[in-house]
């Protein structure tokens, strides 16, 4: 993606959320992997807590 296209897309997405442009594709992919891991861990934690606490809600 060229810089001009990146700017147009950043402005468009900037209308609905904060935009952080990575310096290169490796940095962007690393951030994506970390974010996905964080989301997966949060979902797994909530699932485990639901299993642990479910009997208490009866």
Give me a quick take on this structure.
This protein has 58 residues and is an all-alpha fold.
Structure explained in plain terms:
By secondary structure, this protein is mainly α. It has helices spanning 3-14, 25-53. The radius of gyration is 18 Å and the shape is elongated. The chain starts with a helix and ends in a 5-residue tail after the last helix.
Report the portion of residues in β strands. under 5%
- Helicity level, as a percent range? over 70%
Radius of gyration, in Å, reads 18 Å
Count of helices?
A: 2
Low-confidence stretches: none
Averaging pLDDT over every residue, what do you get?
91
Largest sheet: none
Q: What is the helix/strand order?
A: HH
- Work out the number of β strands: 0
Helix/strand/pairing category: mainly alpha
Distance between the termini: 54 Å
The shape, in one word, is elongated
* Subunit organisation of the chains: single chain
Q: How are the secondary structure elements laid out?
A:
Elements: H1 3-14, H2 25-53
Question: Which structural traits does this protein have?
Answer:
single chain; 58 residues; mainly alpha; 2 helices; 71% helix
